[in-house]
Design brief:
The complex is a heterotrimer of chains A (382), B (380) and C (316). Chain A is α/β, with parallel strands linked by helices. Chain A is built from 13 helices and 14 strands. Chain A folds into 2 domains: 183 residues, Rossmann fold (3-Layer(aba) Sandwich), CATH 3.40.50; 139 residues, 3-Layer(aba) Sandwich (Rossmann fold). Chain A is elongated. Chain B has a domain of 221 residues. Chain B is globular, with a radius of gyration of 21 Å. In chain C, strands 1-4 form a two-stranded antiparallel sheet. Classes of the chains: A alpha/beta (382), B mainly alpha (380), C mainly alpha (316). Chains in contact: A-B, A-C, B-C. At the A-B interface, helix 1, strand 2, helix 3, helix 4 and helix 6 of A face helix 1, helix 2, helix 3 and strand 2 of B.
Chain lengths: 382, 380, 316
Amino acid sequence: MRQKFVRAFGGAAVLALALGASAACADDTKNSSSGSDCKVKIAFFGALSGGNANLGINIKDGAKLAIDQYTKANPNGCKIELVQKDSQGDEKQAPAIADAIIGDSSIIGVVGPAFSGESKAANPKLSGAGVTIITPSATNPTLADQGWKTFHRALGNDAAQGPAAGRYIKDVLKAQKVFVIDDTSEYGKGLADQVKKVVTPVATGTTSKGQTDFSALITAIKAAGPDAIYYGGYYAEGGPFLKALRGQGVKATFVGGDGLKDPGLIEGAGKEAAEGTVVTCPCVPPDKAGNFAADYKAATGQEAGTYSAEAFDAANIFIEGIKAGNTTRAKMEAFVDGYNGKGITTTFKFTDKGEIDLSAVAVWAYEVKDGKIVAKQEIPKP
Amino acid sequence: MMSKLRALDNRRLGFLSGIGDRWHALPKPWRIAFGLAFVVFLFALPRINIPFFRTVETDFTTVLWTVAIYVLVAVGLNVVIGLAGLLDLGYIGFFAVGAYSVALFGSPQSVLATKYPWLVCVPIAIALTMLSGVLLGWPTLRVRGDYLAIVTLGFGELIRLIAEKGDALTNGPRGIAEIPYPPGKWPAGVNSEWTGLDMFGPVTSLGWYWLTLVLVIVCMWAARRIEHSRVGRAWLAIREDEDAAEIMGVQAFRFKLWAFAIGAALGGLSGAIFAGKQNFMSSGSFELMTSILFVAMVVIGGSGNLAGVTLGAILVWYLPFKLQDFNITIDGERINFTEYRLLLFGLALIVIMTFRPQGLLPKRYRSSQPPAAAKEEVPV
Amino acid sequence: MQFEYWLDNFWSLTVGGLTQGAIYALVALGYTLVYGVLRLINFAHSEVFMIGTFAVPIAWTAIGYGRDAHPSGLGSVVLLFAVGLIAAALASAATAMLVERVAYRPLRPKNPPSLIFLITAIGASVVLSEAVGLLVKRKPMGAMTLIQPKEVFTIFGTSVDNVQLLVVGAAIGMMLLLDQFINRTRAGRGVRAVAQNPDAAALMGVNRDRIILMIFMLGGIMAGGAALLYMIKVGSTKYDAGFLLGVKAFAAAVLGGIGNLRGALLGGLLLGVVENWGAGLIGDKWIDATAFVVLVVILMFRPTGLLGESLGRARA
């Protein structure tokens, strides 16, 4: 009996050793991509499933369109593959994905990470390994101050969006009393703080994730009697909040950031309560970006969404780099740092911190009309 | 159908316990040799390429580290649920206290700005979580079992809410970055690209995996010692019948408090490792659903049995990563299995509690102990 | 502490709290009924409520009243209220009975410790909310505005509107009906008998399994009522809308004395008000924390609640 067991155990051990030996060889095979038959990869990093998948899919499709167009125009050029990494927007999953990107040396650039939270978890790794990052959507201003060498942002940050929203409230709406609310999230609080720098609020308040009963907050709003309300937060709470607000007879103009720019806002608030809500976004309306909107529709069957155009631009910067023969991480980083060119949304020239010229950033105001979010005007620069 | 499945499951168990018996029948030197070989195998695992086992879409070393850290959580929670029989639904609270201790005392971004190194933060984290365990346990361990579950749930949510809303201290969902990590640099010869990089820095995960593995082995050994000590026997007595235990002179409250404190300390240690490895964390890392997954791994694997809870942790944390490699798309949308994880483990909780309440790898009792597992096999 | 603000807005916070509290009370009844009879916490009850909230807009859309519809005239509002109530009560009661069949009944003959039931109920809760979440892709679902809030009267300068009156009134009405059912009918006597002494009740010819199923159904109907009132008040729902409300309703049930029907009403209203006062006093971001602190404190110092546990003791 015992002998049999020992034999079985010994067999298992031998097998394990054999597998271990095969490992050493297997590990080396994946680094053979940068050979003469030029073939490189760009990774998309963001949510493709879960509650925030909409935004991630917009970005992925924008980047994919850029690469598909390149492949069509340059059939004999360097082959570029878009690797899709689904993080679900979860900062706990982000490090494992960042490590996987680092481990595949044929990935020379990342379009993403899409959100600010996962950026903070993944970017130290990516930056430490020298992988160039161009995010088309993470707008938290502090991301640029973390000392990540390879970080770049292809759009204005909340420090551009927030003051623009403030100017819109002050100059276009001409509101006297403004009530500023944030959802205490990384994104919402950052944005509301920027707005407060331009307009002095009569009072402030907060909501929290998953909140549905806003009676205490609405009591405070009624007590303050504002003529505009700024909400820094996402549509999930913004929708029901807006509905409760209108239900309680508060007529003040509702202004929010790009976190509200989603059909979910209208689903949550209802068409009537949402009517007239103003949403700001440092993103250019797709139909103002040349043929992009039509091409995107043709390729995906969907209307181009928020940040699709920015992702298209980010991917095109990498494509330019690869066309110029920069097929290693170090070369690509140097190329992007020195890049100066015009994309469909704005002009790209990155500062030391990886930001684009904030004074050149266009922030647009969108308005809810008949249950749809439509572009209204570009917010005038100061 | 049901009875067939049940028979099959019994055969599986019979087979497993057969292996167990043979293992115990082996001479001690053999067992030590095999044990050491297995440990060496575990340390070498990130470098071994086992087909199908290795993850492709996500970095294998990081996945192994993730599993290791949650095995540590399972070992700690097992003390509370498996050994003392206290259902703790808010274990994530202790994990969070441990993680925040390291972040607050260590990171230059925190308001405390003490900037202690990681190695100093860890004992602080353990002490603080033990303290919070005692503070929570002192008033609540007197209430009934199912009430206790809800109180701990409330505690877990309260910790998360403080983390989320108390942004003067914790910086809320914006989180704290630049969390310190242990010192040490990779020497030459391990990997040519790593030489000179921080061993526990953000770029490499291998050092963290090894460190966590060492801690898992140490804690498992310690947990086993405690289980077989007087304290462990007291827990068993309390779990089986608290009133009878009291009559026999076991101070139930004191031992329950011990279980709570020890479990909390292990949770705090795991949190401290988590914070150091992640380098950045925010209140978003401590959602209550994660706490439910903690309970799931202990209960599904087999509460009370270290091998069982290890299996549970592997099922809950490794499988979703592995399933990501199978690039399955439906209607052009990619399926990410992490999204289905809660659904599947929720189902598993119902099914396993109904058909095998002891879990997949039930605890085996030594002959000196009452056959508690047999009690639940009363014919229906 | 913002005492001045709290005093200035005392009545407004109180009215808002009572409205929310009425919904807690209806959900709390589900916990109380199951606990009163089985001495078990039905952790999945929050999802019973959540499924009811989805049933309301689905039913309204099915009969032609989509998200942006405008019901006109008192007749159609009453009719839609009835349709919503029936749909939500059916969906919630069916879910509750399903939970009983899947998570409770198979275990009962083995008579395991109550923790085992709690774990299966947690499993059922997770399965229900995740299944709905995956079905609707975790997006919110909105319902039409059934009743446009309009001020009815003012009290100490605070306006009270028709929605608030309806929510509180309907909740109290449903609770009175349930109270009468338990105290006056034959089936209600069965419930009380099983709660008091299951074995004696079985010997007297009460079908225990049927009574237990009925208990879950009654709890489900009450949760369905809460779901309709919630959709009228809040107007949209999500797959995870149940969890927080469920924990708070449980806290309300414990606060009033779990197992005690009138305790659930008292506890619900009280919790809603305390929570709003807490938000007024220390800032609205601590509103959820207030509820959890109340729960922990009550369980520590008076686990039997304000009115005591007593479904069995005849008075209901």
